[in-house]
Amino acid sequence: xxxxxLVIGLLWKHKNHLLxxxxxxxxxxxFVLLLTLWGALLVLGPExxxxxxxxxxxxxxxxKFYYQAWxxxxxxxxxxxxxxxxxxxxxxxxxxxGVLLIVLGMALVYPVKxxxxxxxxxxxxxxxxxxxxxxxxxxxxxxxxxxQWLSQAPFGVIAEATGGSYTSSARMATYSGLPTVLGWxxxxxxxxGNGDQVTPRQNDLATLxxxxxxxxxxxxxxxxxxxxxxxxxxxxxxxxxxxxxxxxGLREAKFDQNLVVVARFGQTxxxxxx
Length: 274
Description:
Layout: H1 2-13, H2 15-24, H3 27-44, H4 59-87, H5 93-107, H6 109-118, H7 134-139, H8 141-152, E1 157-159, H9 171-176, H10 185-192, H11 198-210, H12 214-223, E2 226-231, H13 233-238, H14 253-258, E3 260-265, E4 268-272
Parallel strand pairs: 1-2
Antiparallel strand pairs: 2-4, 3-4
């Protein structure tokens, strides 16, 4: 804080001189200076203001803001390198360029190796495509067909298996565009800082799928205004017998007895409550 106050004080003291010098700058120099300033603000900002989440410290705010700062400063670094090459007097240009190439080579290790790894050696399983759902159609064709059906169905809330981050949970909501009762539970808790709103939904979904009592199931359907209930392999894997919140496992028979099957794709069934 003292350092920032000192810098601001010095800038204010010499503001007239700085304004005169700024007016002499070439437009490109002024633009790069602006990028430098914005990058500095993005880095300094989370030191004082950050979003409080489950972790209780600045991790999420920092990595979101620092990404933008690095983008801005990468432009500044490229521009500055060219200026230095042109202005160098005491150090031979060849030495500077050599050092610069070494640094760039080290920085490119991850992008090159990462790109090779992420693209499976430039031979992706789905082929070269911009379709982000192609893998879903390959790995879970029944679910993919169900999600496609839901994307064209009347609007309504979906009940489906909830689960951890970076899993297939919430796959129907993701690929259909319809809302779901609960998706990735930990991410939802993380964003809110606690599980006050998430834990009841976790328990209600477990009850919805595992309870034998239809009246209890119907209360949950009405509570969240659920229109579609999805039962597929993921639901059976999530709500297995013996789980703490699902002692007897998933009970699909009650859905068959009380609801209408509006779509069936292999092992994936969609029930309508309306």
